[in-house]
Amino acid sequence: MDTIDRLKVKVKRARFQLNPPIVPAELERFEKVSGITLPADYRAFLLQVGNGGSKPDWPLSLFYRDVSWLLPLDCWDESCWMIDNPDLSVRLAQPCPVTPAVATTEAWEILWDNDEWDPLWGTIAIEDCGAGGFLSLIVTGEYRDRIFYWGDCPHLPPKFIPETNFFEWIEKRLDGWIEQYSRSIF
Q: What is the pLDDT of residues 51-107, one digit of tens each?
């Protein structure tokens, strides 16, 4: 079973409600306007599995510790509430300033204080974790394909997740949701 088929099975087992896959023309338009090509595994997920999705149905979510939801591609800028109508072609083509070296409290606070950080430079929001926290996928630069968590607080530096690409990350997330769902059944 290939990765896409395995993820489709896990989405069903986790009872995750995904939106339909993105229309290829819509994805191509996004890439053309932004001037980037999305990482291959994220692109394949959007085209073949789903374009974002909601947390499990409300009654079940009462048993879940994690009630985050995946963001559809048209919500790429969801993590930035400070800019109205961000310019896609400018924001995503910029190199992402977040690196593992910057992901320390001291280095992060300097970037934050000097306005050298914009959550849209070279990244797209892929998951809303609630309470102002987001997971972002780096789409340009040396750390392309990596995902990091960040919040809207200067004292909470970005934290790179251990998985090195979108497929590894989403499969681990789905496995966690499957485990939580199986524990919630009486």
A: 998 755 544 444 444 556 889 998 887 766 555 555 666 778 888 888 887 777 777
Q: Please tell me the pTM assigned to this model.
A: 0.86
Query: Which residue has tokens 């890439």?
Result: 31
CA dist 42 and 113 (Å) reads: 32
Residues in the chain: 186
